[in-house]
Each structure stands twice: as C-alpha cells, then as structure tokens.
Amino acid sequence: MKKISAGQQTFNAFNLLFLSLLSLIMILPFLNVLAQSLSDSTAIVAGKVVFTPVNFTWINYQYVFGDASIWRSFSVTVYITIVGTIINLLATASLAYPVSRQEYAGRKYIVIFVLITMVFSAPLIPNFILMKWLHLTNSLWALLIPGAISAFNFFVMRSFFMQLPNEIIDSGRMDGCSEMRMIWSIVLPLSKPVMASLGIFYAVGHWNTYMNALYYINKPALWPLQVKLRQLIMTDDISVDPSSSQFSALAHMDPEGIKMATIIVATIPIVIIYPFLQKHFVKGMMIGSIKS
C-alpha cells in the first residue's frame, strides 16, 4: 500500500473541507426555499423561517397541486423536455456521424461552419424575425427546432463516433447494411454512454427553458413552468377559486409560500432523475473527450 505523505494528507483535508463548505453554500438556499414552502404565511411575513419550517403546513402545496394553470405549464415543460431531447439526440447524431467518418467529403467545411456558430451567435431581433417568418411564434416548435443541435454537444458526439473501430463499420457494410441500418443497429447501440450524457444536457436545458419561451410565446396556455414561475414571482399573479376562502386569504395575505412551493415543484423532478443518470453522464463525457 502506497504511503501518503504529510503534504498530501494536508491537501486532501483542505480539499475535503473546501468542497464541503462549497456544497453547504449551494444547499442552504435550497433548504431555505423548502422551509418557506412548508411554513405558514404568518411565520414567513415575520421573517422567522430560515432553514427549518415554522408552523408546519401543507397548504402551499395544496394550492400548487390544485392550480390548473401550474399543471398545464408543468405538462408543457414535460412535453418539450421529452420531445425536444429526442429531436436533439437524433439531429445531433445525424450530423455528427457523417462528419466523423473520413470517407465523407466536405466534412471539414461542416465542422468549420458549426464551429463558427459557437463563436458568433445570431442577434435576438434577426432570430425573432426568422421565427415569425417561419410561423413558429406562439408555437412549441419555437422551443424545439431552433436549438435542435448544440455545437458543443455535436463536437462531443463527433469525438465519440471517431473512436468507434473502423472494423465494426466495415463489417456492417460487408454484411450489406445500408448507412441508416448501420447507424440504427450498430452505431447507436454502441453510443449509449454518450447519448445518455448529452441527453442529460439537452433535457436540463429544455426543463429550464425560459428566454426563448419569453421571446416567442405570448399565449399563457403554452408557457412552460419556468415562465409561469416568473409570472408568480414578478407579478404576484396568483389565481384562486373565489369559493375557496382558505386559498383566497393565503394568496392575498402573503403569496411567498406559494411561490416557494412552486419553485420546489419545478426543481424536484430533475434533481430526482439526475443521480440515476450520473454514471452514464461521467462515462459518456470521458469517452467522448479522450482520443486514443
């Protein structure tokens, strides 16, 4: 067993302490939001809530789960996350695979064009004019089509495809596989780690969709969850059933608890899913970034 020097032990201890403090700094705001979402309005207004709930109550979550507009925004977010991630992975793989093979002519020019998009991004107004000309405004397609391929993710997937043994591709061609059949039956099954890691990138981006929805969508029925959350926080626009005196008093007295509960509802799903995909994320990023 290799002996660890005193300097290495000191560094490890300092590194552990630093990362622990950094993790604590990141967790504390989340604990504060969670505590407020589980506290009654009187304690929140009085500023008594810090990291633990005061006068524990579920009323804020009862309102959130009973609000049809929040559920509608939640369903929109789930839809664009699932459909958008599928579109992203298919589009990225369709472009990355051809330019990763040496036998395809013109691949260098395509790589240069994609690289340019990483350095120079289109201004907002031309983008908006283009979306309007394509009749994509006030449509969920405005959140799915423009960002179908991320330049960074394209280079990661291209690097992964370049590491696939040529013998596997050649054997598939000798067996009579068409290019599409070879991609579907050979390349994609071998690409599960990188597909999973990039799928996380794309899914988190769609789940947090905000700016594009704010620019291109004016219909409240098509707002994703992040835009709905912004509406609650910025305008205190909390709808209540007039017949429900309990929720009506809550919304008019102090809507902070409802806002915090909505933040938790918007955050928890992606926090729950991420740990299950983390091993694929790390493996895919390492495979796609190391060239042998």
In brief:
The protein is 72% helix and 0% strand.
Characterise the protein shown here.
- This is Carbohydrate ABC transporter permease.
- Residues 240-248 and 288-292 have low confidence and may be disordered.
- The chain folds into two domains: 1-57; 59-289, Orthogonal Bundle (MetI-like fold), CATH 1.10.3720.
- It starts with 5 loop residues before the first helix and ends with a helix.
- The protein has 292 residues and is an all-alpha fold.
- The protein has helices spanning 6-37, 41-45, 59-66, 68-100, 107-119, 124-133, 151-162, 166-174, 179-190, 192-207, 211-216, 225-235, 245-253, 256-289.
- 26% of the residues are buried.
- It is built from 14 helices and no strands.
Record keyword descriptors for this entry.
72% helix; 14 helices; MetI-like fold; single chain
The name of the CATH superfamily of the largest domain reads: MetI-like
* Regions with little confidence, pLDDT below 50 for 5+ residues: 240-248, 288-292
Output the helix-strand order: HHHHHHHHHHHHHH
**Number of beta-strand segments:** 0
Q: What is the CATH level 1 assignment of the largest domain?
A: Mainly Alpha
**Distance between the terminal alpha carbons, to the nearest Å?**
30 Å
Summarize the biggest pleated sheet: none
Helix content: over 70%
Query: Which whole number gives the mean pLDDT?
Result: 79
Radius of gyration: 24 Å
- Total number of domains: 2
Q: Number of helical segments?
A: 14
- Silhouette: globular
Helix and strand content put the structural class at mainly alpha
In percent, how much strand structure appears in the residues?
under 5%
